[in-house]
From TrEMBL:
GO terms for cellular component: plasma membrane. Residues 60-146 form the FtsX extracellular domain. Belongs to the ABC-4 integral membrane protein family. FtsX subfamily. It is a multi-pass membrane protein. This is Cell division protein FtsX. It is found in: Cell membrane. Keywords: Cell cycle, Cell division, Cell membrane, Membrane, Transmembrane, Transmembrane helix.
Length: 305
């Protein structure tokens, strides 16, 4: 009995869908934009987080010493920094190693390389500090500014690297906030469109609804077709949004080498594959909430049995 009623509800929902095809297409189009916006927001959030983390992992602090600094003082500073377990590594760079690194650089002209030699080596000794957590950079800055070390410090990359990380964090936060606002806006628009689509369907079927009321039709039988209609909008919107995302990633990746988004696209494709099922579940939830939720709101107001 229940199966028969459900089957009838599906038939009515399909009839409503085909009868009001233009309204249905409009609702699906708007819902596709909403689900697409939420999906892109998620992918960009995952990608920017991973890109920021990779950048943070690559960034370290280099502290260069003046020639007057003794080996004992450099070792003392290294030992003090080593008291923290948060650093990936603290590597001492001698003048010989600094020269070797300089000579191996490909972006330096040979004439300049020839000027710097073991007999006349102006390159400073240094400590290369790899931090696990960006918050530890402030600890390094505080230590090297101590009175016993500061006079012997020639330079450090702390400020430049700190500014770079802050810029990345600012961009990441902006993308998340902008994506969230855009997603909410499209979701609200979708709710409004589906709500009015179902409302118009109810109005078009007002005579049928009156007959149902007179013959004593159950509340479920009267409301189920509209809820199923809303679910269908969400389901089709999910399929279209997945197709658009998949095709877009494939197309953009194939042209990635000639676009400014190539580095971000190299992250988005594996992240999309890695989070495919999570993305699909979120899309299904968003589509169902918008479609069924909007239909339910419209039914509560306009269906009286």
């Amino acid at each position: 009995m229940i199966f028969t009623r459900f089957k009838r509800a599906i038939k009515i929902a399909l009839a409503n869908f085909s009868r009001n095809s233009m309204l249905a297409i409009t609702a699906i189009f708007i819902m596709t934009l909403a689900i697409l916006t939420v999906s892109i927001f998620m992918l960009l959030s995952f990608s920017t987080n991973e890109a920021a983390q990779k950048l943070k992992d690559k960034i370290d602090i280099t502290v260069n010493f003046k020639d007057e600094a003794s080996e004992a003082l450099i070792q003392q500073l290294k030992n003090e920094l080593s008291t923290r377990e948060n650093f990936k590594s603290i590597h001492y760079i001698s003048k010989e190693e600094a020269l070797k690194n300089f000579q191996s650089r490909v972006n330096v002209k040979k004439e300049i390389k020839d000027i710097v030699n073991p007999a006349d080596n102006p390159l400073p000794r240094g400590l290369q500090i790899g931090a696990v957590d960006f918050s530890q950079f402030d600890f390094v800055s505080a230590v090297i500014k101590k009175p016993q070390y500061a006079p012997y410090i020639d330079s450090s990359s702390y400020e430049d690297n700190k500014q770079l990380i802050q810029n990345v964090n600012t961009i990441t936060k902006f993308i998340k906030k902008f994506g969230l606002v855009l997603s909410i806006m499209f979701v609200l628009i979708s709710v409004l469109v589906v709500y009015n689509t179902v409302r118009l369907t109810i109005i078009f079927r007002s005579n049928e609804m009156e007959i149902m009321r007179l013959v004593g039709a159950s509340t479920f039988f009267a409301r189920a077709p509209f809820l199923l209609e809303g679910f269908m909008y969400g389901f089709f919107a999910l399929i279209f949004s997945q197709l658009i995302i998949f095709i877009s990633i494939k197309l953009l990746t194939s042209f990635g080498s000639v676009t400014i988004f190539s580095s971000l696209l190299t992250l988005i494709e594996p992240i999309y594959a890695k989070n495919f099922w999570l993305l699909l579940v979120v899309q299904l939830i968003v589509g169902t909430v918008i479609g069924v939720g909007s239909s339910w709101l419209s039914i509560r107001k306009f269906v009286k049995l």
